[in-house]
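Researcher: Please translate sequence to structure tokens.
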Amino acid sequence: MHQVTGLILAGGLARRMGGGDKGLRLFRGKPMVAHAIERLAPQVDTLLINANQNRASYAALGYMVIADVIDGYAGPLAGLHAGLSACTTPLLVTAPCDSPFLPLDLVARLRAALADDTAQLAVARSGGWSQPVFALCRREVLDSLSAFLAAGGRKVDAWFTALTIVEVPFPDEAAFANINTPEELERLESQ
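Model: Translation complete:
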């Protein structure tokens, strides 16, 4: 667990949710981001929240809040860039604010794969899909990410092609369920 900063990504516009701030939407009686914090915080040394709106509400949760440095809500890579810029540990792990069931062993498994490999980034894989916002990266990828964003890049998968990555299989697909729409929120609320 040592030497890892956690970053909760809550900087988006929640367009599919109908706008607003998805991380602050209530799920089972508390903000969605609170569920992600409860599951990620015990796995890391330091926790940051990337948020571009309602920063005081996020700060009230007790963690440092950082905004994107890149203007225009440039997506999860802009949040990762802000996190890497603020990170003081060798490793940074990311998780989205809308995934209330993220694995309790996420960091341990990603870190083990990164330690056993020469990779720069370890990413979760579940249900036959890469889960790119559930990733552990070495802090030194900041230069690569900065250059990618400066060139107009915004797609996570496109940036990954410039890196040496290792995918880590997770059998529990439900752990990566995220809530993007009011319908998904309602469905998962009732389960």
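Researcher: Any highlights?
Model: The helical segments are 32-40, 55-59, 76-86, 106-115, 142-150, 156-160, 182-190.
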